[in-house]
Design brief:
- The protein has 333 residues and is mainly alpha-helical.
- The chain folds into 2 domains: 211 residues, Rossmann fold (3-Layer(aba) Sandwich), CATH 3.40.50; 81 residues, Tyrosyl-Transfer RNA Synthetase (Orthogonal Bundle), CATH 1.10.240.10.
- Helix content is 53%, strand content 7%.
- The chain has a 3-stranded parallel β-sheet.
- It is globular, with a radius of gyration of 22 Å.
- Adenosine-5'-triphosphate (ATP) binds next to helix 1.
- The site of magnesium ion has 2 residues, from loops.
Length: 333
C-alpha cells in the first residue's frame, strides 16, 4: 500500500503552462518514481506573489498545469495532485519554520537573489522573498524523503534540511531530512540563450505548443553569434540548439553528424534547426494527444485535483497535530 512507501513532494508555481525545461529537469523523474514513492505533486499558488496584479492568470495556470501533468502521464490514481492554498496548514507551518531560519541564510540564497534581481529587488513583494520558507513547509508537511527538482531549487532544499535538523534537535524527530534529486538536464537553457528556460521569462517551448509554433520558435533560436555564414566553422559549447538536440533528439547518429559538419562549416543553421524542430515535434506529439483528451473532459481534471488535495489535507492535519504538540501549544488544557 502507498502508506508504506517513502514520500516525494515536489511542486510548480502556477505562473504559466509547462515547458521543456520542466520535462527534462523534473517531470521525467516524477514519472519514473510514481510507483516506487507515494508522490505529492503540488501547485504552489501561495508562491506566486509576482502575479499579484493578475489573479486571473494564476487561475488559468492552475488548470494548465494540471492538464500538462495529465498530458505527460502523471497518474492521479497513484499520485496526489495538490493545490497548496486549499490546505492553509501550509501557511501555519511556514510561519513556525521561519522561527528557525536565520535571515542571512535566506538573503544569501543564490536562486532567490537571482530571481529578485530579475524582478527588480525594490518592487518584489515580501511574500516573494519568503517563498523558499513556504517551500520548506511544502516539503516537510508530508514528511517527504525525496524532492525531484531542477538545479535552481537545490539551495531551497539545503535550507529545508538545515531547518528540519534544528527543529528535530529541539523537539525530537518530527521531520525526515529531505534529499534533492536533479533531473537528466539540471537546468535547460532558454531559447534566447538565457541560462534558464523559465515560465516567466518568455523564452520557453511549452509542452502544449503546436507543431507550427515549435518550428517557429526553433527558427528564431539563439545559436552561435560568431557564425555569420553556413561555411563559417561553428561552436557547440553554449549553443542552445545543440543542447536541445542532445536533450531531446533520440537519433544520436543524426546529432553527431550535424555536430561534425557544424564545427567545420558544412551545414547551415536552417538544416540544424529543421531537424531539431522535427525531433521536438515527434517528442511532443503523444503529449499533445493526451492533453487534447483531457481538455475535452474537464471533470477528470477537477476530480484529480479534488481527490489529491483532500488526501493531502488529511496528511497535513496529522503533521500539524504533531507540530503543535511538539511546540506545546496546549496552553488552555
Ligand atoms: P517561473 O519562471 O515562473 O519561476 P519556472 O519555469 O522556473 O517558472 P517553477 O514552477 O519555478 O518553473 O519550477 C518548477 C520545477 O521545474 C522546479 O523543480 C524547477 O527546478 C524546474 N525547472 C524550471 N525550469 C527549469 C529548467 N529550465 N531546467 C530544468 N528544470 C527546471
Ligand atoms: Mg522558477
Amino acid at each position: 500500500m502507498s502508506e508504506d512507501k517513502k514520500r516525494i513532494l515536489t511542486g510548480i508555481r502556477p505562473t504559466g503552462a509547462l515547458h521543456l525545461g520542466h520535462y527534462a529537469g523534473a517531470l521525467e523523474n516524477w514519472l519514473r518514481l510514481q510507483d516506487e514513492y507515494d508522490c505529492f505533486f503540488l501547485i504552489a499558488d501561495y508562491q506566486v506573489s509576482d502575479k499579484a496584479d493578475d489573479i486571473d492568470s494564476v487561475r488559468e495556470a492552475v488548470r494548465e498545469i494540471a492538464l500538462d501533468w495529465l498530458a505527460v502521464g502523471l497518474d492521479p490514481e497513484r499520485s496526489h495532485f495538490v493545490i497548496e492554498s486549499l490546505i492553509p496548514e501550509h501557511a501555519e507551518l511556514t510561519l513556525w519554520l521561519s522561527w528557525w531560519l536565520p535571515l542571512g541564510m535566506l538573503q544569501r540564497n543564490p536562486t532567490l537573489k537571482a530571481e529578485m534581481a530579475e524582478l527588480g529587488s525594490n518592487s518584489v513583494p515580501v511574500a516573494f522573498f519568503t517563498y523558499p520558507v513556504m517551500q520548506m513547509a511544502n516539503i516537510l508537511m508530508p514528511k517527504a524523503h525525496l524532492v525531484p527538482v531542477g538545479e535552481d531549487q537545490l539551495p531551497h532544499i539545503e535550507m529545508t534540511r538545515e531547518v528540519a535538523r534544528r527543529f528535530n534537535r529541539l523537539f525530537g524527530e518530527v521531520f525526515p531530512e529531505p534529499e534533492g534529486l536533479v533531473g537528466r538536464v539540471p537546468r535547460l537553457v532558454g531559447l534566447d540563450g538565457n541560462a534558464k528556460m523559465g515560465k516567466s521569462l518568455d523564452n520557453a517551448i511549452q509542452l502544449k505548443d503546436d507543431a507550427e509554433t515549435v518550428t517557429k520558435k526553433v527558427k528564431g533560436m539563439f545559436t552561435d553569434p560568431t557564425r555569420l555564414r553556413a561555411t563559417d566553422p561553428g561552436h557547440l559549447e553554449g549553443n542552445p540548439v545543440f543542447m536541445y538536440h542532445d536533450a531531446f533528439n533520440p537519433d544520436t547518429d543524426e546529432v553527431q553528424d550535424l555536430k561534425d559538419r557544424y564545427v567545420v562549416g558544412k551545414v547551415g543553421d536552417v538544416e540544424v534547426k529543421q531537424k531539431l524542430a522535427n525531433a521536438l515535434n515527434a517528442f511532443l506529439d503523444p503529449i499533445r494527444e493526451r492533453r487534447a483528451h483531457y481538455e475535452a473532459r474537464p471533470e477528470l481534471v477537477r476530480e484529480a485535483l479534488a481527490a489529491g488535495t483532500s488526501h493531502a489535507k488529511r496528511i497535513a492535519e496529522q503533521t500539524m497535530a504533531e507540530v503543535r504538540s511538539a511546540l506545546r501549544l496546549n496552553y488552555l488544557e
